[in-house]
Amino acid sequence: MSSVFKKPFWMNFKFKMNYEKYHYLFTAKRLRLLFGGYLFFLILMALLPINSTTNTTLTDVFVINIRLDHLLHATLFIPWAFLYIVTFRPVKWDEKLLLVIYGLLMASATEGVQYFLTYRSYNINDMIANWTGVVVGMGLVVGWRKVNSE
Prior knowledge:
single chain
């Protein structure tokens, strides 16, 4: 008996890598450096004076009825879950819960620090977009693991 809902063709592909052949790329030190660089980039983006009162292109451009700046905020936090998992390799459910909590805290901190900076603007919608990026990234990692475990 065939199922009414068929698997999309892209879910039939396995995205496994030959870790024995490329193990030197995935050393703990390199992964920690990559995660640290990513965190540094997020902090740098929160602290740099990139707001401009005359240039409002990011807030005026919409992609599928979503403001481009909110889309970019979410996109910045999508890699959080993947980089955290490959760096720290959480096993237990409470460690995975910490992944989400740390991600939400980092997303809140990068936007919250802008409240205290005179040259940046705090926006709750940006914080929600950051949170959305963390949750979407976690969902993608969970989906990727399910596809690869079958």
